[in-house]
Design brief:
Immunoglobulin-like, about 600 residues, 52 strands, 6-stranded antiparallel beta sheet, mainly beta, elongated
């Protein structure tokens, strides 16, 4: 019968179960299941399938704890086995609860197969058969008592006890019953450990019980420590020459956990040779093995000792170290004779012999052909694997000498280069000179009436295949309109603008003629007549040039002047004492008033 004294025990069991579940969650495992749970007279036959699983790269092995108890009792009996079947010897006509629990031998994992209830069979034809639970008692050295239960397959009556004087009993013994609960009592033992076999006499026969009582003088410690397990993911290689080992502490029946001693061994798997051994480690659960060989398999063993020198091992998982880092550059194979060489004004063929490497195979080496000019890379091939030829095309200059080289990588990205070779493309065949026959402008006349501050002017040169179609642009009155290059490449060193298109910038009222002249000596020209009736945003002060270009105010002064600059609200922005000459003042976008002496001009900065 359960009492209130059982609830703390049940609570502890529940907490231990939850802790076990958290530990099992660290491993990947699959529980088996029962295949047999049945009674055979007074025995219970159990069978089950195995639990499988792994932890990291380690395959887990499992053992099984079989537990049973009579229904209504809190105390379990249990046995551990590695088999997949077990027979429980019990009493006739009794309800039992049975459970199988799998546990990982090394690592974590496993769990309960579930509790099953089974009733043994009553056989009235059998003679009285007595059983006692437990079959052995171990008692403390001080005076104490422990419960035993005698059962029979038919009612019986207790008749007495044969026992030494230091043992007696207590409990209700009157009347016939099929189960008897007795308290076995031991007197205090001040000497060494002692034991005796006592006999309980009943009307159904006799049953014996072995009782051992500890003495005040402790017995020698002969029990080995119980190893923990390797921490998940360990041991593991942390470099080509080092393995890190971590484990959970072992436990012992006598020696305190912090006084247990450990030794880590590293054994080469191929020949079984012990290559590294740690010093003796106390209260330590990690160690790094160093100085071992790269790309080699090792078995890692941990041995644990207690203070009585009893020892046990954690097992020997296998760990393989990675290959050593490749830091050596490939060795170039040189160019094929006669290469690299030019095959046209725009093409150079490069052929080379394969490089070699201490680790990477030849067919996995990578190449890139590089073409440089004035120490600057102008052409390069894509990355080539297992190839030894490439043609560089579309070279921009046929009259220049190019630097040709081949870059080679191994799989560790170590890089080296074949030697640099200078190669000049083949010369182009000269073409007959074709002079310009005519020049035409897209706008022969432009009138500006406050509608814009600049416009684009484009020229067409005929014939289209003229040898030198370049044009030179000019303005007959730069105070009214100037010519600006569309790009910096269109501006000559002298400041003259060339190109097939220009921007004409308007400065003030007046007239100007914009002329485009062929530069091949043909003398062909074309002109655009520009008349400025009024300007946009920018105004011109007589004798001065005041205009905005590219986000800046431009001033051309004939003599030193005091220049005042205001925004549209009339606030003074800046005052400058400007000498004669050209001045450029960068400004934020907006409309500004420029005052020079008594004269005022308005400009628009974009």
């Amino acid at each position: 019968m359960k009492t209130r004294h059982h609830y703390p025990i049940l609570l502890i069991a529940l907490l231990l179960g939850l802790m076990g579940f958290a530990e099992h969650a660290q491993a990947d495992y699959t529980l088996g299941h029962y295949t047999r749970v049945e009674a055979d007279n007074n025995t219970i036959k159990l069978a089950w399938t195995k639990t499988t699983g792994s932890q990291g790269t380690m395959s887990l092995q499992f053992r099984y704890r079989v537990r049973w108890r009579e229904s209504g009792y809190s105390t379990w009996k249990e046995k551990t086995t590695t088999d997949l079947n077990f027979t429980i010897n019990g009493s006739y006509n009794t309800m039992y609860e049975v459970e199988v629990i799998s546990e990982a031998i090394y690592g974590t994992g496993g769990g309960s197969y579930g509790v099953r209830k089974v009733n043994t069979i009553a056989d009235p034809e059998l003679p009285g058969e007595l059983t006692i639970t437990p079959k052995e008692l171990t008692m403390e050295a001080k005076a104490n008592g422990k419960i035993v239960i005698i059962r029979c397959n038919k009612p019986f009556k207790f008749k007495g006890l044969d026992a030494p004087r230091w043992l007696t009993y207590s409990g209700g013994v009157t009347g016939y019953k099929d189960r008897l609960r007795l308290l076995v009592l031991a007197l205090a033992n001040t000497g060494p450990e002692r034991s005796a076999t006592i006999t309980f006499k009943t009307t159904a026969g006799n049953v014996t019980l072995k009782v051992t009582q500890k003495g005040e003088t402790p017995a020698a410690d002969t029990e080995t420590p119980k190893p923990g397990h390797f921490v998940l993911g360990y041991p593991k290689a942390i470099s080509p020459t080092a393995i890190e080992v971590k484990w959970t502490p072992a436990k012992d029946n006598v020696t305190a956990q912090e006084k247990l001693r450990y030794r880590v061994k590293c054994i080469r798997h191929s020949d079984g040779k012990e290559v590294k051994t740690s010093p003796e480690l106390t209260n330590q659960t990690e160690y790094t093995i160093t100085g071992i060989e790269p790309e080699t398999e090792y078995r890692i063993q941990i041995t644990v000792w207690d203070e009585a020198n009893n020892s046990d091992g954690y097992g020997d998982p296998i760990v393989k170290t990675p290959p050593a880092a490749d830091t050596e550059k490939p060795k170039p194979g040189g160019y094929v004779d006669g290469y690299p060489k030019a095959i046209s004004p725009t093409e150079i063929v490069v052929k080379w012999n394969k490089a070699t490497d201490n680790v990477t195979k030849q067919e996995k080496l990578r190449y890139q052909v590089r073409c440089g000019l004035f120490k600057k890379l102008v052409k390069s091939s894509p990355i080539l694997t297992d190839e030894t030829e490439y043609t560089i095309t579309d070279l921009p200059y046929s009259d220049m000498t190019y630097d040709i080289s081949v870059k080679v990588w191994d799989e560790a990205d170590n890089v080296t280069f074949y030697s640099v070779k200078e190669v000049k493309p083949l010369e182009k065949e000269p073409k007959p000179t074709v002079q310009v026959s005519s020049v035409m402008l897209d706008q022969p006349k432009v009138t500006i009436d406050g509608d814009r501050e600049s416009f684009r002017l484009e020229a067409t040169v005929l014939p289209a295949n003229a040898t030198n179609p370049a044009l030179q642009w000019s303005s007959s009155n730069e105070s009214v309109a100037t010519v600006e290059a569309v790009s910096l490449s269109s501006m000559l060193k002298s400041g003259t603008v060339e190109g097939s298109a220009v921007t004409v910038r308007i400065h003030k009222k007046g007239k100007a003629e914009i002329t485009a002249q062929a530069m091949d000596g043909s003398g062909k020209t074309a002109s655009c007549q520009v008349e400025v009736i009024s300007t946009v945003g920018n105004e011109t002060i007589d004798g001065l040039r005041v205009y905005a270009v590219d986000g800046a105010l431009h001033l051309t002064l004939l003599a030193p002047q005091i220049v005042h600059l205001y925004d549209v609200s009339g606030a003074l922005v800046r005052t400058m004492d400007a000498p004669a000459g050209d001045h450029v003042l960068p400004l934020a976008p907006g409309v500004y008033l420029v005052r020079i002496g008594e004269q005022i001009a308005k400009v628009l900065i974009k």
